[in-house]
Amino acid sequence: MSDSKIFDFEGIVYRIGDEWSNDSKTFFKRSLILLQVSDYNGKKYENYIEFDFINEGMHLLAPIREGNKVNVRFVLNGRLGKDKYEGRAFTTLKAINIEILEASTPQQVQTSIKADEVHTAVENFVADKQPVPFGSDDNSDGTNDLPF
Description:
CATH 2.40.50.140, 6-stranded antiparallel β-sheet, 9% helix
């Protein structure tokens, strides 16, 4: 890696992937997708860049949360495909370090559950759990399990 040039990329954490491993369980990785918004001629362009945290480097993602503004230090890795992929080149952005520049608050983090879905789920939960009048017994044998 001493011959590799090291790059930095700054962006907002869009998604942190699940851990993945090969069949022999000798190679592990987690992907991190950063969002960087560029302004060009008055128009905003979104760039989503994926970085791989490989094997022992996965622990660097422990403090990272979606919505954090971070700087990722990485190296470019490339290889040629084999068999049916012969003639193609594959490039990987291998992360070697990550630094939190700005932590996000829970209100700033985009979630996959929309507010109306949460509201509906809460309403359904409450509707299923009707309050039991004080002093009534829930148990069919006439006893209750209160400690007093």
